[in-house]
C-alpha cells in the first residue's frame, strides 16, 4: 500500500512549509529514518526522514514549492512495481478542508497555547515551557504524548526531527542567561558603530615605571597600565561629556559623575565592577579600588552595588597579546573602549621609520546619542592625553 | 461535486454515515443494502432491545409505584402491543435514515453485492454491475454460534429470535453473559420468564471492570436471574417440549431443564459471498484487516464497523464510516481509539470509558481509584435508585482520568461527561472543580473526582 509523506508541522505557529530539496529521486529506495527531503519554514530548515522504508514512488510537491502543513508531498511504496493510487488532482491533496473549520484558524489566539490539563501538569512538573512542545498529534492542542515526546527528545515515528549533532548539553547558569540577554539587547537596541586609533604608549609606560614604587609605598598596590588608562580616559570623558550619557525614552541623560566600569573575565563569564566617581579619584585610589574589586571578583564576593551604575566601560584584553578588538556597549551606557596590547611597531616620526611601543584602542559608540564627529573628537583627545600624560594633570 | 464514484456496501451504522459523509464531500455515492437500511443497530440490535428494555423498566417502576405514594391496579403485559411499538420505532428511525440518504442524493440499491474485480461489484438479484473509484465495505456481523454436542436437531435461539418472540416461554436459558445476554435476559426475566445465564468466563460482562461486573451480577441475581460462571456447556438434549442443558462448573456437572435455549456468544464479521478472495482482500482471524485510517490492503477499498472486528459498537462504526469516507476523498483522517464509551442497558445501567482498574495497573503501574456510591447522591434517593456506584481510575502522579465506570441509574447518559474528560486529558482536579447541577445524578461524578482531589463533600 502506498504510504503518504506529509508536510509536517513544526511548532505551533507553522502554517506552511517550502520544500528546499529532495534528497532522494523518484524510483530510489529509501530506508526508514533516512533523510527524504528538506523544508523551510520561517527561515529555519528541517530535515524530514522517511516514515517507512520503501521506494520513493512519486514526488507530488517539487522543490521551491510552498504547501500547507498536512499536505501530501510524496508517496512511498513498499514493493517495486506497486501502483501508486493518487487520490485526486494534485491541488486537492493540499488539504482544502472547505466545509470544516481548518484546524489552524481556530487554534491560537496570540500567546495562548492550547494544551490539555494533563499536558499542562506534566510540562509544569518537568519545568518545560509549552512553547517548547510540538503539537505532534496535529490536533491543535498539546497532549500528554507530545509532552512525553518533548521530554524524551524522541518524537513519534514518521514525524521529522531536527538533527542534533553529537555533543554535551550544559544547562545555562543564571549568569550566562543574563549575559546573553544583555549582549543581545545591546546589539538589537542600540545603533552601535566603531572607531579605532593607534596610540603611542612610550610616555605612559615611562609614567608607570616612575609611579609603581610611589603608589606601592602609598597603598601597597602595583600600578597597572589599565589604572593609568582609566584615569586618562576619565579625563578625556570630562572634556567630552557626550560620551558619559545614557539614552532614555524621554531624552538623553547626561551624568554629572563618571562611574567607570572595568570589564573582567571570570570563569563563569563576564562581569563589570565599577569604580565610582573615578574623575575625583587619584591614581593610587583607582589602583587600590581596582585591586579590591578584582580580588572580590576572584573570590566571588562582589556585591550588587559593586557591579552596577557604571556610565562608561573600559575593556582591556592586552594581557592576551591581542592587537585589537571591538567590544559590545554595556547598556545602558553610550560607549565602551576596547584596549589592545602594547606592541613595538615601526612608525614614521619626522619622516623616519622608528620603533615605538604602540597600542590600538577601539571605541564602540551608540550613534543614536553620539555622532561620528563627537566620537572622533573624544578619540583625538584620548590619543593626546595618552601620548602626553602630563597634559591630563591640569 | 468532484464526481468520484463511491460505492458503499452495507447500509447499517457503519455504511450509512459513510455514504452521507462521502456525499457531503462531493462524491457520487451508491449504497447497496441486502436487507433493511439501518442494519443490525436499527433493525435487530441497539434500538429494538432498548425499546423492549424500556417497557421492562416502566413495568418495574409501576410494580414499585407504592414506594412513591402511588397505588396501581393490576398490570397486564400486552406482548403484541409491545412488539408493534418496537416495529413503529424501528420504522420511524429507518425511515429517517432513508430520507437523509435521499436528501443527500445517495442512490440506494437493494440487493447482495459481490466483487467481480477490485473496481466493480455485481448485484446478485438484478445482475446489475456497478463500477466505482472507491469502495467502503460495511457489511457488519452476524450472531456467532457455538457447536454444542447433541444440539444438531435442536433449534437454539439467537439474539435476533429473542427480539421477535411472539410469546413468553416459561423458562429461558441464555448461553453467554456478555452485554447482549444480560440485556435480553433481564427483559425476559422482568416479563416473568424464569431466566438462567451461563457464562464461560469467571464473571458476566467480562470486558468491564471486575467490581462493576460483580455488582451487576448481584443486582441480576437479586431480581431472580440464575447466573452460572465458569460454566462450560457439555450437551443439550430434548426432553419432551423442553430442553435439558448439561454443563460443567468448578463445583461439578450441573443440569438445567428449560423451555428455550438461546445463544448470545458474540458476533462475527460478515462478508461471505462477496468474493473477497478473488480480489485479494486481506483478512486476519476472520475479520477484514484495516489500519487506523480504515484502509484495507487494496488502496481504494476501505472497511468499517463490525466487519473489521475490534470493538463492535454502533458508535465506533459511525466514527469509522465517516473516517473512511474522508480518507477515500482525500481528507486525511484517523479514528482515535482512546475514548470509546461502552454501554449496557440493563437496570441498573452500566457504562464505562477508558481502562478498567486491572488494565490500568497493567499499563501504568500504580493508579489511584475512587468509588462514590449513588446512595450519597440526593437525586438517587428521591428516585429510589440508591444502589450502584461511580468508579474512577486515575493516574497516580497527575490524576489523569484513565477509566470511568458507572453502574447505576442513567449511567449511559452520565458517561458522556467522562468521555469528554478522557478525550481532553482532564485530571480529577478539573473534574472535581467544575459545577454540577443540583439535584442531579451528575453530582456523583464530581464527588467521585473529589475523592481523589481533596475529599468528597458528601461522604463521611
What is the straight-line distance between the termini of chain B? Answer: 63 Å
Proportion of strand residues of chain A:
25-35%
What general outline of chain B do the C-alpha atoms trace?
A: globular
Could you say which structural class the secondary elements and strand pairing of chain A correspond to? Answer: alpha+beta
Count of distinct structural domains of chain B: 3
- Based on CA atoms alone, the radius of gyration of chain B comes out at 24 Å
Strand portion of chain B: 25-35%
What does this structure look like?
- The complex is a heterodimer of chains A (394) and B (460).
- Helices cover 26% and strands 26% of the residues of chain A.
- Chain A is an alpha+beta fold and 394 residues long.
- In chain A, the strands form 5 sheets. In chain A, strands 9, 12, 15, 16, 17, 18 and 19 form a 7-stranded mixed sheet that branches. In chain A, strands 1-8-6-3 form a 4-stranded antiparallel sheet, with no helix packed on it. In chain A, strands 5-4-2-7 form a 4-stranded antiparallel sheet, with no helix packed on it.
- Chain A is elongated, with a radius of gyration of 31 Å.
- Chain A starts with a strand and ends in a 7-residue tail after the last helix.
- Chain B has 460 residues and is of the alpha/beta class.
- Helices cover 31% and strands 25% of the residues of chain B.
- In chain B, the strands form 7 sheets. In chain B, strands 3-2-1-7-19 form a 5-stranded parallel sheet, with helices on one face.
- In chain B, a hairpin with a 4-residue loop joins strand 20 and strand 21.
- In chain B, helix 3 runs antiparallel to helix 4.
- Chains A and B meet through helix 2 of A and loops of B.
